[in-house]
Design a protein that fits this description.
Blueprint lengths: L6 E4 L13 E7 L6 E6 L5 E7 L4 E3 L14
Antiparallel strand pairs: 1-2, 1-5, 2-3, 3-4
Length: 75
């Protein structure tokens, strides 16, 4: 179960937000059981890229044997 303040990974590309599957965000709000989430995506230095309203199928929990990956944002 994903809860507020959990760190999650994006499960799909979202080019309209400049995001790619695997990008990591923080859940800032939960809209009820299986209703959706507000997730904030930031750069490594803390700049907010976007806060997106996402369906549960668009994010996933992060497992203990996963490795973060850095990428430069495109303009």
């Amino acid at each position: 179960m994903i809860r507020e303040l959990d760190t999650v990974a994006l499960a799909v590309d979202m080019p309209e937000h400049g995001l790619k599957a695997g990008d990591i965000g923080a859940v800032v709000s939960v809209h009820g059981e299986n209703a959706g989430f507000e997730v904030e995506f930031t750069t490594l230095d803390g700049e907010t890229i976007t806060v997106a309203s996402l369906h549960p199928s668009q994010i996933r929990s992060i497992g203990p044997r996963e490795m973060p990956h850095a990428r430069a944002l495109t303009a």
